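Q: What structure does this chain adopt?
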Amino acid sequence: MTLAAVLCCAITASAQDAQTDRNRTYRITLNDVQYAHHNEEMSAGDAVGKIITGALTGQTSVQATKYEDDVKNAIIKGLSGAYRFRYNDGLLQLNDVVEEGNLVVDAIIINIKSNSSSRTWKDKEDKTKVSITYTGVAEVMLTLKDAKTGEIMANPSFKGQGTSGSSYSTSDKAIQDALNGLSNRITAWFNNYRPLCANIIEGGAAKKDKQKEVYIDLGSNEGAFVGLHMGVYEVKTIAGREAKSQIGKLKIEAVEGDDISRCKVQSGAKDIKAALDAGNNLIVISM
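A:
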């Protein structure tokens, strides 16, 4: 009986550990920011070579610009917005976050500029008037390295620019708009790189052959929040490999505990209901 109890506890603990590790959070640190010289033509390939060389040799060349702090802050904002990463704000040294899975990020600014356009017209007094508007563009490339092994994990590049029709009276405002877009794209990439995952644990309200609500095993402990959009995927094993196909979308409407949330089915109501009724293997992944 004692052995059975020990084994039961071990299995339960193991399952709990696996569940916790499913949405494990990682530390992320911005290490080095480099600037391409504005008078140089630099391709994306050249930029990759430049930053990898810097990462391997420890040698860097930095060009200060008037937007240095703005660009760095935009990158930090993007990293800080990711669901499963905790930005290291400098309180911890790099040596203190050397754990496999934690990331150290180097960045290079490939391009930051504002484009101007002018419009000329005549006023009521037949005087010529000219207005100038600006749109901003900001491009960066990040190198992600595993904090423990030093392995380069990815080299994503991002371009932030004003939305269609956006224009500003100064280049500064235009560039700030571009940097906001840059932050959003960085956050979106990291949320795709390490999404939140969950399982449907119970079907909620349903109407005929359509599922209206479901409950998932993702709650406040793992970062669930009202308004989070998630995709529903049906998982099959084909030739020994796992294959998944999206059959619907959910949105969290209420976080009801540490490990449970109620979701509204936004699309795929029929397919989700059929899959649940058939006992098919479903997983839920943040979008």
